[in-house]
Specification:
alpha+beta; 6-stranded antiparallel sheet; single chain; 27% helix
């Protein structure tokens, strides 16, 4: 698949794929862009009041959930629109995400194998441009 075909397929996937997860809908994930050369698909998440921890920042578990949502959706795309389940997800937290900001997650397809899809992600605070957290994981296509 060439660049134009890949990017068109990502756009079609983002428009047509039915995500029936109430939790993912509550996170309000939205498509942010893609890049063929980097094998990257990006999503944007708003920080919301219900996501605050005791310090007033976005709770680390929510950050992990945002990664699982964005990277998991990319795994479904990589699996040819077949469902894929998380095998493991490792998150490294670098700095807090302010509760009045937006997270951009850039997901990279590292290896798209037949039995395991390996991906990695970077979370950037849209307002500051700073790296908030990174993640790596493996997904199993169903």
């Amino acid at each position: 698949m060439n660049k134009e075909q890949w990017e068109q397929e990502v756009l079609r996937f983002e428009e047509e794929y039915e995500d029936d997860s109430p939790f993912d809908r509550k996170l309000e994930r939205e498509f942010y862009g893609c890049d063929f050369e980097e094998q990257r698909i990006s999503h944007r998440f708003p920080a919301q009041p219900w996501q605050k921890n005791e310090r007033g920042d976005v709770h680390g578990g929510i950050i992990g959930s945002m990664f699982d949502s964005a990277i998991g959706l990319t795994a479904v795309f990589a699996a040819g629109w077949r469902e894929a389940t998380t095998v493991d997800l490792n998150v490294s937290f670098l700095r807090p995400l302010d509760s009045d900001s937006h997270a951009i997650i850039h997901t990279y397809i590292v290896k798209n194998g037949r039995s395991i899809i390996r991906l990695r992600g970077e979370m950037i605070c849209e307002e500051s441009g700073k790296l908030v957290a990174t993640a790596t994981g493996n997904w199993f296509p169903l």
